């Protein structure tokens, strides 16, 4: 199970963060100060820390620095003020991401997921098709044109197709691999995503084309 | 003390002090150089008179001496016992007997040269027997000592009057001139002071008719410019405070009303959820507003000189990765095309610019659309284009997009979180960096924002 260290001197905020994380299925260790956080991390293995910036004693920046350099622990900083200097200091301290309070729980969960995903890809995981390079770690597609950032589902579709170029993949397979077996929607959802992806590729990497194979599914091809 | 009195005092003191300085300087000069020359000149005259008198008869000598007396010399002749004067008395006729005896013995007396220097007396005018030249003469075989000097009073009387009149005239006219000049100088200052006092009580339309090309004219011009600017900034501030109060007041009001609704009995679960969502939204809006107000305040307060080198492409990339959640939510695709570009600027402020512009693009995009970001450079500037396929804006909305608290779609605002400050902040930051920002937009087609910043 993934264990997350939540650090905040504001108990209400701490409870809120912990509750949201627990509901999403993570194990949460709650502490109310930087000092306590350093004690706990000595005895327990953590996968991620969510740290508030404004704390008495060891503040969020300091704690982040220690956690990053000594424990190699990814950190999400919570800043109360939308203060530009804090933002910069947060980057300096080496946090992996930051969130400005007040935030919605789904944003927190999204960022937690994104960071964990990044940390599970220790090496660069690259797929190449035509002029396109697909980075499975950062979820970006690159070409000589620049960088293309697509929504997650589209990215997963693209990587799935690109991992087997020129092979026709059925919509059922795509639904199973990307949305999961429990998916409630129909094949139309796949069509919508494929169409969007196709349009984006048309502009960004015209040599890479997604071809509809009537009655079967889709395949990806490199066109000269 | 008023400026008038100061002017008069100043003029008076200047005249007095300069006269004194001039007097002492001339006195020193007289004693140092002129005294000797004057002595020699008179000695030459005395010698030729002596030569003439020595050669002539006593009757003729008498006549000559009388004539010289009338012609403007003061003569004092003595044989040691009796004294004869021609051309009037000396004011002070004390003289050492030893000197008279020496002259009688044939020596010359250089009294003008040896006349002692006194601080407040000009030796030139001293009507004293000591201040003469003396020679010995022989009349009828009898030795006499003859002392002489020009009769200044007789010779220069009219000149005295002339110069005296001139001096009085100069002084009087100077005072009158000074008063006129003072008046000319002081009048605009009085006007300016009155206008300034009025400005203290927030009346900005006191007419100021000062049309001058000098320093005071410039002061008046500067004053008018400054007054206009202050007036504008006070108006802006009032409007700002008004807007802020309204923008804080109205969500608070909404929150209050919906809380009241929530507390009523018999509210269905569905309604509860709906009301909570509205409250949530209003709180988010207020929070965003206060955050941006903080940014504005810190931006106004700090003297934020653009000084560091900033890799803007890197910044945009970071911003994109931070905002990924937001465009993920709307299933937007973003393509980012750029080269490595650095500008001189203030990194956190520029970051605010990218964040605001990208947040806007995301906010006004329809789900599933694309946003294209392109960053290029010319030899002297960086060009960033952010193109969305969003709701777009009308020409009127584009025109007011950068006004503080202007929100394009008043009716739709409720569903789109916005403080109305974002673009105003962006514009101020870009202008601080001497750049430009332009919006081109077509309703229902999309909006392109172009930012240009000068390179290093």
TrEMBL record, chain B:
<dbReference type="InterPro" id="IPR004358">
    <property type="entry name" value="Sig_transdc_His_kin-like_C"/>
</dbReference>
<dbReference type="GO" id="GO:0005524">
    <property type="term" value="F:ATP binding"/>
</dbReference>
<keyword id="KW-0597">Phosphoprotein</keyword>
<dbReference type="InterPro" id="IPR050398">
    <property type="entry name" value="HssS/ArlS-like"/>
</dbReference>
<dbReference type="InterPro" id="IPR005467">
    <property type="entry name" value="His_kinase_dom"/>
</dbReference>
<keyword id="KW-0418">Kinase</keyword>
<keyword id="KW-1003">Cell membrane</keyword>
<keyword id="KW-0472">Membrane</keyword>
<dbReference type="InterPro" id="IPR003594">
    <property type="entry name" value="HATPase_dom"/>
</dbReference>
<dbReference type="GO" id="GO:0000155">
    <property type="term" value="F:phosphorelay sensor kinase activity"/>
</dbReference>
<keyword id="KW-0812">Transmembrane</keyword>
<keyword id="KW-0902">Two-component regulatory system</keyword>
<dbReference type="InterPro" id="IPR003660">
    <property type="entry name" value="HAMP_dom"/>
</dbReference>
<dbReference type="InterPro" id="IPR036890">
    <property type="entry name" value="HATPase_C_sf"/>
</dbReference>
<feature type="domain" description="Histidine kinase">
    <location>
        <begin position="243"/>
        <end position="456"/>
    </location>
</feature>
<dbReference type="Pfam" id="PF02518">
    <property type="entry name" value="HATPase_c"/>
</dbReference>
<keyword id="KW-1133">Transmembrane helix</keyword>
<dbReference type="InterPro" id="IPR036097">
    <property type="entry name" value="HisK_dim/P_sf"/>
</dbReference>
<keyword id="KW-0547">Nucleotide-binding</keyword>
<feature type="transmembrane region" description="Helical">
    <location>
        <begin position="6"/>
        <end position="30"/>
    </location>
</feature>
<comment type="function">
    <text>Member of the two-component regulatory system HssS/HssR involved in intracellular heme homeostasis and tempering of staphylococcal virulence. HssS functions as a heme sensor histidine kinase which is autophosphorylated at a histidine residue and transfers its phosphate group to an aspartate residue of HssR. HssR/HssS activates the expression of hrtAB, an efflux pump, in response to extracellular heme, hemin, hemoglobin or blood.</text>
</comment>
<dbReference type="GO" id="GO:0005886">
    <property type="term" value="C:plasma membrane"/>
</dbReference>
<keyword id="KW-0067">ATP-binding</keyword>
<dbReference type="Pfam" id="PF00672">
    <property type="entry name" value="HAMP"/>
</dbReference>
<keyword id="KW-0808">Transferase</keyword>
<feature type="transmembrane region" description="Helical">
    <location>
        <begin position="159"/>
        <end position="186"/>
    </location>
</feature>
<dbReference type="InterPro" id="IPR003661">
    <property type="entry name" value="HisK_dim/P_dom"/>
</dbReference>
<protein>
    <recommendedName>
        <fullName>Heme sensor protein HssS</fullName>
        <ecNumber>2.7.13.3</ecNumber>
    </recommendedName>
</protein>
<keyword id="KW-0843">Virulence</keyword>
<feature type="domain" description="HAMP">
    <location>
        <begin position="183"/>
        <end position="235"/>
    </location>
</feature>
<dbReference type="Pfam" id="PF00512">
    <property type="entry name" value="HisKA"/>
</dbReference>
């Amino acid at each position: 199970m993934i264990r997350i260290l939540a650090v905040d001197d504001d108990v209400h905020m701490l409870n809120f963060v912990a509750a949201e994380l627990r509901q999403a299925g993570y194990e949460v260790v709650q502490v109310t100060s930087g000092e306590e956080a350093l004690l706990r991390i000595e005895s327990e293995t953590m996968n991620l820390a969510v740290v508030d910036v404004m704390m008495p004693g060891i503040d969020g920046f300091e704690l982040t620095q220690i956690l990053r350099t000594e424990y190699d622990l990814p950190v999400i900083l919570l800043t109360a003020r939308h203060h530009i200097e804090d933002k910069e200091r947060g980057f300096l301290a080496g946090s992996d991401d930051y969130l400005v309070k007040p935030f919605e729980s789904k944003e927190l969960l999204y960022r937690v997921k994104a960071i964990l995903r990044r940390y599970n890809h220790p090496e660069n995981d690259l797929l190449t098709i035509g002029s396109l390079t697909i980075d499975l770690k950062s979820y970006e597609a690159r070409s000589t044109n620049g960088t293309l950032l697509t929504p997650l589902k589209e990215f997963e579709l693209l990587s799935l197709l690109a991992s087997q170029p020129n092979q026709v993949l059925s919509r059922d397979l795509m639904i199973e691999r990307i949305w999961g077996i429990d998916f409630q929607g129909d094949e139309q959802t796949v069509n919508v995503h494929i169409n969007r992806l196709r349009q984006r590729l048309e502009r960004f990497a015209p040599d890479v084309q997604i071809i509809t194979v009537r009655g079967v599914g889709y395949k990806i091809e490199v066109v000269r | 003390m008023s400026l008038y009195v100061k002017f008069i005092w100043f003029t008076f003191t200047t005249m007095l002090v300069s006269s004194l300085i001039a007097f002492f300087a001339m006195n020193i000069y007289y004693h140092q150089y002129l005294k000797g020359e004057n002595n020699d000149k008179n000695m030459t005259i005395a010698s030729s008179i002596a030569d003439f008198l020595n050669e002539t008869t006593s009757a003729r000598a008498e006549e000559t001496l009388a004539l010289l007396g009338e012609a403007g010399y003061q003569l004092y002749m003595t044989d040691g016992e009796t004294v004869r004067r021609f051309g009037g008395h000396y004011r002070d006729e004390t003289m050492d007997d030893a000197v008279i005896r020496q002259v009688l013995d044939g020596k010359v007396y250089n009294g003008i040269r040896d006349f002692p220097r006194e601080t407040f007396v000009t030796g030139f005018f001293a009507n004293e027997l000591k201040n003469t030249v003396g020679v010995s003469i022989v009349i009828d075989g009898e030795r006499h000592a003859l002392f002489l000097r020009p009769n200044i009073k007789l010779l220069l009387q009219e000149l005295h009057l002339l110069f005296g009149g001139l001096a009085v005239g100069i002084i009087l006219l100077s005072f009158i001139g000074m008063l006129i000049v003072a008046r000319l100088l002081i009048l605009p200052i009085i006007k300016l002071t009155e206008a300034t006092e009025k400005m203290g009580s927030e009346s900005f339309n006191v007419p100021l008719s000062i049309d001058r090309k000098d320093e005071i004219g410039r002061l008046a011009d500067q004053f008018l410019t400054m007054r206009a600017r202050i007036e504008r900034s006070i108006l802006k501030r009032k409007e700002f405070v008004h807007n802020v109060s309204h923008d804080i007041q109205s969500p608070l009001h909404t929150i209050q009303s919906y809380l009241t609704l929530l507390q009523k009995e018999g509210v269905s679960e569905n309604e509860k959820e709906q009301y909570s969502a509205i409250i949530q939204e209003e709180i988010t809006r207020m929070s965003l507003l206060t955050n941006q107000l903080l940014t504005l305040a810190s931006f106004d307060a700090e003297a934020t000189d653009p000084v560091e080198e900033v890799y803007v492409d890197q910044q945009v990339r970071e911003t994109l990765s931070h905002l990924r959640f937001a465009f993920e939510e709307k299933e937007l695709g973003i393509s980012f095309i750029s080269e490595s570009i650095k500008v001189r600027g203030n990194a956190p402020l520029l970051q605010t610019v990218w964040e605001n512009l990208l947040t806007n693009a995301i906010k006004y995009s329809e789900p599933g659309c694309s946003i294209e970001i392109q960053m290029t450079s010319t030899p002297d500037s960086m060009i960033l284009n952010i193109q969305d396929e969003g709701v777009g804006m009308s020409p009127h909305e584009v025109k007011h997009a950068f006004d503080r608290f202007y929100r394009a779609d008043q009716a739709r605002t409720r569903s789109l979180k916005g403080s109305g400050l974002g673009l105003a902040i962006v514009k101020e930051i870009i202008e601080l960096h001497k750049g430009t920002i332009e919006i081109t937009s077509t309703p229902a087609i999309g909006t392109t924002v172009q930012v240009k910043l000068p390179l290093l």
